[in-house]
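We close this part of the discussion by returning to an individual protein. Part of our work consisted of pairing the sequence of a single chain with a tokenised description of its backbone. What the numbers capture is local backbone geometry rather than side-chain detail. The amino acid sequence and the backbone structure tokens for this protein are reproduced below.
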Amino acid sequence: MKVLIADDHELIRRGLSGLLRDHFGDVQIKDVADAREALEVLDEEEWDLALVDINMPGRSGLELLKDLRRLKPTLPVLVVSAHTEEDFALRALKLGAAGYVSKQSASDVLVGAVKKVLAGGRHVSPAVAEKLAQAAAEGWSGTPQENLSHRELQVLQMIARGKTIKEIAAELALSEKTIATYRSRISEKLGLSTNVEITRFALQHNLVD
């Protein structure tokens, strides 16, 4: 089995690698620290599974998920994040993830999720299954943050971490005008005027670590 792990924390990458080897034996693992590295090694092997974190420098794990679905549509992607399932699972599943596991979960949950997605299934908790049912109901538009685009969500998170528009633009390789536009859309969609309000919203909804 060949597994690609994308997470910006070395300890997490080592922990996931060890867990996979303990339960699946001879596993070939490539671990990378960000989306750019993941895309660079994507064509080196025919991967059986990708484990992807959400919060990484540069392109987020959700953006990497979109790239993986486009470039390797048959590759199952399991999102493994510090955020609880209620925060990002629905968004990840809508983007094509095969499952979502919180890093707070027990190791056997992750192992079970890996087995399920490798067998062609999808891993969702009962709470996420209920949210999916709600999403399918007529007229349900999701929580406020779920109505943000992926880039808007990323900008919101960076603002909440104290970054300026100039710093965000440099990190995302976009113009300051573009970032300001995303900032305006965030304010309009969430009804938040100041960066303090945006930060408070992000903390209240567990959108930042």
